[in-house]
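Researcher: Go.
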Amino acid sequence: MSEHVIGSVGDFPPGTHRVIKVRSAEVGIFNVGGRLYALPNLCPHQFGPLCAGTVGGTTACNAETGWKHSWVRDGEILTCPWHGLEFEIATGRCLASPRLKVRTYPVAVDGDRVTITL
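Model: Structure:
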């Protein structure tokens, strides 16, 4: 594993994401609430371009929502553009199936410099 400089903090404003290439890997960089996360641009379901999907939230109906359907976790969930599977950006966990998970890569900020370890 090695560390790669991928840009400055200003290149990744809060609430945005973009796909970058590091060596031969395409990686999605996501700024969720001021914290940076990195996921491979590859859905484990059928290998679609996961990070080309939309970032939003999801619906929930549980004790926290008073057992009413509610929109929750806005800006924390990535939806695969091919089949709509939802993934938690911070952990890579698929909301629909615990068997599916994408790897997460460490992202570090040092001053204004942003690095990723692959």
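Model: The first strand starts at residue 3 and ends at 8.
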